[in-house]
Write the structure tokens for this entry.
Amino acid sequence: MVTGWRSSSAAEPRLPLVPEINKIAYLLERLAQGVAAHDRENPTHHSWGIGMAHFDIERLGLEEGEQILPGIVLQADGSTTGAFRVLCDGDHDAELTEEEEEVLDAVASEEVGEPVYAPGPAEAPQIRPPF
């Protein structure tokens, strides 16, 4: 856990961990923005966590299961390093399946017009390699 102070020896004065504190503050800001964007786009879903790579959780000095924002817990989910995802109780795969079904319904199974033919020879000329 980050204590907020760093010292390489007892003789040196203690200096605050400003770069580390700024890094955590930046992370918390991005996480809050991600949760807010998810909740705005999916009002029927309840966000409950943030999924991150286990490596990133360790590197930041955080712990899995830790409440990182109010009502939001941190979970290792095996995602790629440097990325996070919002975990919620909604089913995003159902929405993708619904979109796929809409696309399938839009494909026509019957011809509506007459086929267009170009004038020219009835058979296509054979293509031969230039060897």
Notes: Residues 15-90 form one domain. The two ends are 71 Å apart (CA to CA).
